[in-house]
Write a structure and sequence with these properties.
- By secondary structure, this protein is α+β, with helices and mostly antiparallel strands.
- The chain has a single domain (31-211), classed as 3-Layer(aba) Sandwich (Glutaredoxin), CATH 3.40.30.
- The chain contains 10 helices and 5 strands; from the N terminus they run ααββαβαααααββαα.
- It has a 5-stranded mixed β-sheet with strand order 1-5-4-2-3, sandwiched between helices.
Amino acid sequence: MNRRDVALGLGASSLAALLATPAWAQGGPQEGRDYTRLQQPQPVPGGGKVEVVEFFGYWCPHCHAFEPQLDAWARKLPADVVFRRIPVAFNEPQKLYQRLYFALEAMGQVDTLHRKVFTAFHTQNMRLEKASDLQALCNANGVDYAKLNDTMKSFSVATKCNQAKQAADGWRIDGVPTLGVQGRFVTSVGQAGSHERALMVMDALIQMARKS
């Protein structure tokens, strides 16, 4: 979902159909069609690993729809690839959800609550900017609400939010979900055309990053 709430194309295609498209027939995804190369590369951690970044928002229905497949894909990445998520906020109300993710990360609760936050917002109609809804989510999953609330207000989370804004600006993020590889390549479900095709593009970009 972008700043103007333009819907992304989320139609699914079979693997055979994807491989039959002209872009893949020519040997792989095509720059400008399936992915974009950043004019100004962004910094990546050292250590020789390829970094994959997902820019997302809990408030985004497209991120919610993509999450199961993306999570399954990310869990199977090889040892030389590191995956991280960066929550994006395009307006003031969305900043709470950005703080929520970083608080869950600081508390080691991402595995427990990440998918459940999506479910609460998009299928249970819970607005987690309301203290009562956030507390209900915590209570249902054995998470200390008071500690979560304090962590969301902490200096370390505020610092992470500032860093996330800088990253989103550097990557020129104007919609989510957007995926980045090694500070240089960007794609999205909308650009690739489907969930499956976006992940195929990512696999190819990881290979390109390794070679370079």
